[in-house]
Design a protein that fits this description.
Number of domains: 3
Number of strands: 7
CATH architecture of the largest domain: 3-Layer(aba) Sandwich
Number of helices: 25
Strand content: 5-15%
Radius of gyration: 36 Å
CATH superfamily of the largest domain: ABC-type transport auxiliary lipoprotein component
């Protein structure tokens, strides 16, 4: 036997007399089959829905009743007799309590019994029993539930007008199995398990599509989840930015510090990262160049004099205090999760800082400068934590960035080195790499040439939709994030695209009455958004990526409520995923 909590209270009122207050409890499952546990609350919910169709009936929200039943702790004892039912009714302020049970001698046959108890006297003033079946042969079972509903009305001596009586007797669900699923969905909702509730409500609707009670509950659940997601997104972005502001205030004095210490260096590293996160790229490069000089000076001033030139000082770890300061400050300001990603790779040694500067130059569309810095960094790394560590080889850097012309030139050098050394295996490997690189160079050049040709044509784009569509199709085809990044066109191309949108170049497509033209512009907008995201791929560019998404949604407005909801959910997902706490 499973005891179920009260589901709801019905307040029946009328203009000419004081209506009785009625509380209807979930039926208890006495079938011996745990799979029927949802039937009790489900039957009670269906009965309640009947009362909501009558204008004189006021139904108390289920959530409020769940709170009350938790307070009176009926979840363990249940309503097992008129005495406990009357006691619960007094606590709830009810005049009458309705409770009951579902019995079965042998499934699929079941019997449902209801009792109406007068709270003041504790006496049973009415009882009603109906019999039916569950499963395939129980399709008309809930026609019998009408008898239970009318029995409650009769016990309360309520008389309905003909119109209300017809509405009261309408049945939109016929299988007890369906209502059992619905009842379990209600229990999942009460326990806060929205995922299970959504799955169960969807199942109930699929079993009986006309079951409006389940469909309405599913709609309400979706709205509640959506509202909760909005709250999470708002809290995430607000709280995170408040903590970023506290961090900015704490680290700002380091810029004016006269003495260079591990704490000053750590705070300056965080200041530079904040500039990068805010898209202040010129300031970021200035801050990091200064930090490189300060760090080098700090290392030279603290390095032991007794160390043999070129040897590694075993007990010299100038970066340990730097890391401790940064970690402790982020933890103190409750930026622990950000410390593992948005503030990860806070480099100390100059060669590490220069490696990241080269990466940033590359994504910002300056591959030649980035490569020059990477080569210089490799040749002049400066002080290293360990002799075996250091900047990556320029050939590896050019491969990572897909700078195939540079990679080809560096690979040709490897071929010559192998020839001079007489190393046949190295020569074979280098020649294989060179053949692959040459193939990449040709393919890369074709894609870059195609993009540049299209970009030139876009400077004088036609104004009619038909002609413009052909050019935009070519533009969409020419957008390849990897190719544009490697050639330095990605960010510059995205900004040029935004300028074209602002100047109205694409308006013939955006405002066309033909769906195919609007779809074409949507494809273009999405292609450029993805390219911009590829530029700002690192975690610390979270605000840039969010702005990219908002820009896209502004350029391609949603059509209809359903698409508007998807847009909103996408933004909220970006926020809750990007502004982690």
């Amino acid at each position: 036997m499973r005891a179920l909590a009260l589901l709801f209270v019905l307040a029946i009122s009328g203009p000419a007399f004081a209506a009785p207050r009625v509380a209807v409890a979930a039926l208890e499952n006495h079938t011996g089959d745990a799979s029927m546990d949802g039937a009790g609350p489900g039957v009670a919910a269906v009965l309640t829905s009947k009362f909501t169709k009558v204008e004189a009936v006021d139904v108390v929200e289920r959530e409020r009743i769940a709170e009350l039943t938790a307070e009176i702790e009926l979840g363990q004892s249940g309503l097992v007799d008129p005495r406990t039912a009357a006691e619960a009714g007094r606590i709830l302020g009810a005049d009458f309590m309705v409770f009951g049970s579902i019995f079965s001698a042998k499934l699929p046959s079941v019997a449902v019994t209801l009792w109406v108890v007068e709270v003041e006297t504790g006496k049973v003033i009415a009882s009603q029993e109906v019999r039916g079946e569950v499963g395939e042969r129980g399709e008309e079972f809930f026609v019998l539930i009408d008898e239970l509903a009318f029995a409650i009305l009769d016990a309360l001596q309520l008389r309905l007008a003909a119109r209300d009586r017809i509405a009261f007797g309408e049945v939109d669900v016929r299988k007890l199995d369906t209502v059992d699923v619905y009842g379990r969905a209600l229990e999942a909702l009460e326990s806060g398990n929205a995922g299970d509730a959504k799955q169960l409500l969807s199942k109930a609707v699929s079993l009986e599509p006309e079951f409006t009670l389940a469909e309405e509950a599913l709609t309400r659940l979706a709205a509640e989840v959506s509202s909760r997601r909005s709250v999470w997104a708002h809290e995430a972005i607000t709280t995170t930015k408040e903590r970023w502001a506290r961090l900015d205030a704490r680290i700002a004095p380091a810029l004016d510090a006269k003495e260079i210490t591990p704490e000053v260096l750590a705070h300056r590293a965080l200041i530079a990262r904040r500039a990068l996160m805010n898209g202040e790229f010129d300031r970021y490069f200035e801050l990091e160049e200064q930090r490189i000089a300060d760090t080098q000076a700090y290392i030279e001033s603290t390095r032991p004099d007794t160390v043999v030139p070129g040897a590694w000082p075993r007990d010299f770890s100038p970066n340990s205090d730097f890391w401790r300061v940064a970690r402790d400050l982020l933890k103190e300001l409750e930026l622990g999760n950000q410390a593992s990603w948005q503030y990860s790779d806070l480099f100390f040694f100059p060669w590490e800082i220069r490696t990241q500067l080269a990466d940033t130059l590359f994504v910002l569309g300056e591959p030649e400068q980035a490569m020059a810095l990477a080569i210089d960094n490799y040749q002049h790394p400066g002080f290293k934590k360990h002799p075996s560590e250091g900047p990556p080889h320029p050939q590896r850097v050019s491969y990572k960035w897909e700078l195939w012309p540079t990679y080809t030139a560096l690979t040709q050098q490897e071929v010559r080195k192998a020839e001079l050394a007489g190393d046949k295996k190295a020569l074979v490997d280098a020649n294989d790499d060179l053949d692959k690189a040459l193939t990449k160079v040709e393919a890369h050049k074709r894609r870059v040439d195609a993009y540049e040709a299209t970009a030139r044509k876009l400077t004088a784009a036609p104004r009619d939709a038909a002609s413009l569509s052909k050019l935009v199709q070519a533009e969409v085809k020419s957008i390849d994030s990897d190719v544009l990044l490697a050639s330095g066109h990605a960010l510059k191309g995205y900004r040029a695209y935004l300028a074209r949108v602002e100047s109205g170049v694409y308006e013939p497509l955006r405002t066309s009455s033909e769906r195919r033209y609007r779809d074409l512009f949507e494809d273009l907008a999405e292609a450029w958004r993805k390219t911009a995201d590829a530029v700002f791929h690192e975690h610390w560019f979270v605000e840039q990526r969010l702005q990219n998404l908002l820009t896209y949604q502004e350029q391609v407005p949603p059509e209809g409520a359903e698409e508007e909801e998807r847009y909103r959910e996408r933004v909220e997902s970006a926020i809750t995923g990007g502004y982690r706490l």
